[in-house]
TrEMBL record:
Biological source species: Streptomyces mordarskii
InterPro entries: MFS, MFS_dom, MFS_trans_sf
Membrane-spanning ranges: 23-45, 57-77
Keywords noted in UniProt: Antibiotic resistance, Membrane, Transmembrane, Transmembrane helix, Transport
Domain Major facilitator superfamily (MFS) profile: 23-125
Name this protein carries in UniProt: Major facilitator superfamily (MFS) profile domain-containing protein
Compartments it resides in: Cell membrane
Lineage: Bacteria, Bacillati, Actinomycetota, Actinomycetes, Kitasatosporales
Major subcellular location class: membrane
The keyword Ribonucleoprotein appears for this protein: no
Domain of life according to the entry: Bacteria
SUPFAM superfamilies cross-referenced by the UniProt entry: MFS general substrate transporter
Length: 125
């Protein structure tokens, strides 16, 4: 007479389905983030083109380069997360971001004329 343990079989199938749903939701949110960042780039793109003298084909290439760089760095971050753990990778990323932000804040700003100095005399009254 053999005894089979059925308690293990039901738990792993439910857990596997739950993990798949969470992974699918995560992949969907990453894809939406990528689409929104590319859409956010489209807003200042005409001004960037005017500032640098770029044609329409160059702006499309710029947008594609931004998307590929973003996706590549996203994959690199996922690889770091797989290798070192999500919490460590996030902490390291936040430290690098804070350090870069700190360097940017400490950098002296070039002097620019104030907006009010270019307005006509009666405009500020």
């Amino acid at each position: 007479m053999t005894v089979t343990d059925t308690s293990r079989g039901t738990g792993t199938a439910a857990t596997s389905t739950t993990h798949r749903r969470h992974a699918f939701a995560l992949l969907g949110s990453v894809r939406i983030t990528l689409i929104f960042t590319l859409a956010a780039l489209a807003v200042p793109l005409p001004e960037i083109g005017r500032a640098f003298g770029l044609e329409r084909a160059d702006l499309i290439l710029l947008s594609t380069a931004y998307g590929l760089t973003f996706a590549g760095l996203l994959l690199f971050g996922a690889r770091l997360s797989d290798r070192y753990g999500g919490r460590r990778a996030l902490t390291a990323g936040l430290i690098v971001f804070a350090a870069a932000l700190n360097l940017r804040v400490q950098r002296p700003r070039p002097s620019r004329p104030s907006r009010t100095s270019s307005l006509p005399q009666g405009a500020m009254q």
